[in-house]
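PROTOCOL LOG
Step 1. Enter all chains and additional molecules of the complex.
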Amino acid sequence: MEPIRSCIACRSQENWKELLHLVQRDGRVIPDPTHTLGGRGAWLHPKCFEVAKNRRSFNRAFKSNGDLSLHELEEYLRKVVRNVHPERSS
Ligand SMILES: [Zn+2]
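Step 2. Run joint prediction.
Step 3. Record the structure below.
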């Protein structure tokens, strides 16, 4: 049986393969798609990123009161979820 995790934004329970694993490092939220980083993790549907951002779900998930940088996560999602954020390089 596959492990089940909850998305930090929509709270629905999901097979962990459908969710992106996130960890926190020095106030930054970092995507960990290969599950190689240690520490306290959180799980998120890539499509739920905007919801999580608006609800400050990251702060709750990582028990942080300060500002968490989402830059690396945003960059990752931009590359992976091209149809959500279509971009042209030239
Ligand atoms: Zn979700």
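Step 4. Note key features.
The CA atoms of residues 21 and 45 lie 9 Å apart.
The chain has one domain: 4-80.
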